[in-house]
Fold this protein.
Amino acid sequence: MNQQDFTKIIMNPVRQRIVQYLILHEEGTVSSIREEMIQAALFSLAASFSRYFAQEENDPRKDLLSLSTSTLLLTDEEFMEMTAKIGAVFNDYIYNKPEEGRKIRRFTLISSPSEEE
C-alpha cells in the first residue's frame, strides 16, 4: 500500500468517527456505532441549516436551497435500482474540480423506513 492510499483510508471521515467513538467509549458494537453516526449526521445537518438561517444576508432562492421529502412504494429491488441511478448521476459530478462559477454544495440524501403501512 502506498502513502497516498494509506492517507485516503485514514482520512476517511466515516473511519475517523468510528475511531473517535471507540476512543471515547473504549468499545462498541456495530449497532451502537451506527446509532451514534446517524445522530451525528442529523445534528450536523441541523447545525448547517441553523448556521445558514442565522446569517441575514443569505437568500434561499438565490442560493438554490431546497428540502424535499417523498414517500415511495418500492420493492427492495426497485429501491436498489433507484439508488443505483442516483449514484450514477452523482458520479457524473463527484470528481468536478474547482472552476470559475462552481460553488461547494452539500447534497444530503437520507433514506429511512416509513412507519406507515
Q: What stands out?
A: Residues 30-54 form the longest helix (25 residues). Residues 60 and 66 are 8 Å apart (CA to CA). The radius of gyration is 18 Å.
